[in-house]
Every structure is written in structure tokens, then in C-alpha cells.
């Protein structure tokens, strides 16, 4: 599937039972198709979060079958608790999050992914889109300082210096 759209995989898939996969930069609707292509090509099982408004008929059933979790962004405080409970209840638990929270260009990422990592102790691993080389890259774990603003800026700076999304103007 990835080859059919001219993309390839790079890097090393993390060998951990629980992880937060940061899919970034998120600049196009094609990102979901690439993520699903990656998931199927490697036989990975992971859940991913998307705004609940996208889970309408007939897509809701398809998205859920593909691992989608509808998120009510107006109830953001409860999301961290729900995901923390999900991590606690599962021996193997991977979840994909796009930290920008949108396909448009943003100056800083939303911080929910960090709140989830802090609450659960689950590591964060960057999966980057490199549109120049047409590669989805399993890159690296992010060391956290515990300072949410510092960590968020470090992640954003790392992504900006290493990756360009499918729509570079939105990266």
C-alpha cells in the first residue's frame, strides 16, 4: 500500500510493550492513509486518536475497526484519565497521536500527549513524515524533563529540524 503512493519505511520499530507514537508533522488527510499503510505493512496493532466529529456514518465503523478512538476535545481533561486507564488495563498498548492536533500549521503543539506520558510513564516515540525522501521514519524516543512547556518546545523543534509533512506549507 505504501509503495503504491510512493512512500517507504525507515528506521527501527520500537521494541516496547507500551508506547505513545507521535505521528508528525500532520499536514494532510493522506497522513491517516499512510499511518494505516504502515500499520498493515508491519503488522502493528495500535490505537489512534481523532476528533469525534470525524466518526460519522459511514466512516465511524471503519475508523473504529482500524483502531480509531473518537475524542471529545471539549472534555480534554477526561481524555488523559481514559487513556491512562486504557494503558493500565492492557499489557501491550500502543497509541498514535498527532501532537499538533490539526493539519494546519501551528506554532506549538497541544500538550495532551505529554500529559498522557506524564500520567502513565509510557515513553514517547517519534514517527516522522519526510516528504522530501518520501519516507515514514521510526525515529527515536524523546527524553522528558517533566517541564511540559520545555518538553513540548523540544519535541516541536526536533520535528521542525528533521521532518517536512506532505503539505510542507503546513509543517
Automatic annotation (TrEMBL):
Pathway terms, separated by semicolons: Lipid metabolism
Q: Which residues form the Phospholipid/glycerol acyltransferase domain?
A: 19-132
Instruction: Provide a Gene Ontology MF annotation, just one.
Output: 1-acylglycerol-3-phosphate O-acyltransferase activity
Pfam families according to UniProt: Acyltransferase
UniProt KW keywords = Acyltransferase, Transferase
The domain of life for this entry's organism is Bacteria
Q: Which InterPro entries match?
A: Plipid/glycerol_acylTrfase
* PANTHER family linked to this entry: 1-ACYL-SN-GLYCEROL-3-PHOSPHATE ACYLTRANSFERASE (PTHR10434), PHOSPHOLIPID_GLYCEROL ACYLTRANSFERASE DOMAIN-CONTAINING PROTEIN (PTHR10434:SF9)
Name the record gives this protein: Acyltransferase
Amino acid at each position: 500500500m505504501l509503495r503504491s503512493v510512493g512512500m517507504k519505511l525507515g528506521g527501527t520499530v520500537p521494541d516496547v510493550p507500551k508506547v505513545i507514537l507521535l505521528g508528525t508533522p500532520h499536514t494532510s488527510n493522506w497522513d491517516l492513509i499512510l499511518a494505516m499503510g504502515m500499520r498493515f505493512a508491519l503488522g502493528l496493532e495500535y490505537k489512534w486518536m481523532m476528533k469525534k466529529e470525524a466518526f460519522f456514518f459511514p466512516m465511524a465503523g471503519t475508523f473504529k475497526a482500524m483502531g480509531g478512538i473518537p475524542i471529545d476535545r471539549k472534555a480534554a481533561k477526561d481524555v488523559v484519565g481514559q487513556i491512562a486507564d486504557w494503558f493500565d488495563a492492557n499489557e501491550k498498548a500502543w497509541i498514535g497521536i498527532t501532537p499538533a492536533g490539526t493539519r494546519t500549521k501551528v506554532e506549538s503543539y497541544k500538550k495532551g500527549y505529554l500529559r498522557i506520558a506524564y500520567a502513565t510513564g509510557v515513553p514517547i516515540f517519534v514517527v516522522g513524515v519526510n516528504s522530501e525522501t518520501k519516507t515514514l521514519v521510526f525515529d527515536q524516543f524523546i527524553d522528558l524533563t517533566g517541564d511540559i512547556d520545555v518538553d513540548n518546545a523540544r519535541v516541536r523543534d526536533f520535528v521542525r529540524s528533521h521532518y517536512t509533512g506532505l503539505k510542507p506549507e503546513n509543517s
